[in-house]
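# nightly structure sweep
# worker-07 picked up a monomer target from the shared queue
# config: single-sequence mode, recycle default, output format = structure tokens
# input follows
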Amino acid sequence: MMLRRMLSGLRRKFRLSLLLQNLGFRPGMRRSKMTAAQTTTTLAAHIRALREHFDSVVLPLWLGRGFNAALGLPFESLDSATGAPLPVERYRAMACARQLYVFSEAQGAAAGKHADVLFESLRRVFRNEAHGGWRYSVDAGARPLDDTQDLYTHAFIVLACAAYFRRSRNADARKLMLATASIIEARFKTADSLYHAALSPDMSQALRPPAQNPMMHLTEAYLAAAQVAEPALFAQHLRGLAQGISHRFVHAPTQCISEERQGTAGNRLEPGHQFEWLSLVQGAAPVFEGLDLAESLPRAVQWSRSRGVDAGGVVAALDESGAVIDDTRRIWAQTEYLRVLAVLGDLPALEEGLAVFRDRFLHPGGWHECLDADGTIVRADMPSTSPYHLATCISALPAVV
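# output follows
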């Protein structure tokens, strides 16, 4: 009876009936409302070329030389010039989970089989059997290296398991997703509806306080989880988290979400994260309806576009006055800019942005991870984590044939 009253209250307060009917949001996989007819010939050509590059160049890298078949794990990084694996120091659970997400969403039987292998490797190699949860990394021989319980890692495991369950209908993936979410709620959550960034291996001590980035990816993960299990419960968690972000992390003058709690010395505002947050929140509007975060994010994005984007792309970070403090152009921030332009339906900016992105960041063998403002390469490897950003960007673009 109490549960029925609680759900009834949630439906009234959150309009949950609408959420349950329309929670078709898939993190990064929500198509723009633009139709093919609305795109220009040039924009359509850019979209086709980007998708072709992803399907014919990026994905094959990680099915082939980027995958350590002996261990069943993706290499952490490849040489950008040759595509060869770089010397191995570790394998991270988060990197494996991101690859599982990518291949769970990719088309074709080969991608599906690869996702099967990645799922088995994820739970075989990275589960912390002694304490529950997930270890951060293993060494080159797949032996435990860092047993820190990391929220960022746990969030991506929830996301990957949700995506893999949608594709495979493997019940173990759904169970693992729910078990991981339960650990997050029981051990990482704070009294003010935020989440510690990291805990000790036995989860008895907080090692790092709440931080923006892992909580953003937890938002993404819970939106994906709500599609396959417990939508009312995940909606409740999401709304509480969104309010916590608004109260503790939003910088009032700019409305941007800062990287650390407001009041932290040397705080940063990252334009790419404003873009990423808006894509998530706007893509699941019924969940966040009426919350402060849904109102502040459009202003944060507008401010970030005016100060953090120029002819060379999106800068890495600004201070709270709007001054550039890190001028590096990272590929993930560029993909999040393109994604939010698609979500907002800004066709002219999307066309221009895709042209710049393809010219500066893509090459026949893959991509450039980081450039400076002049286009000089400042990081000459291709991490296994970056295809996730390319995938979420591409899936948000308008469908063209």
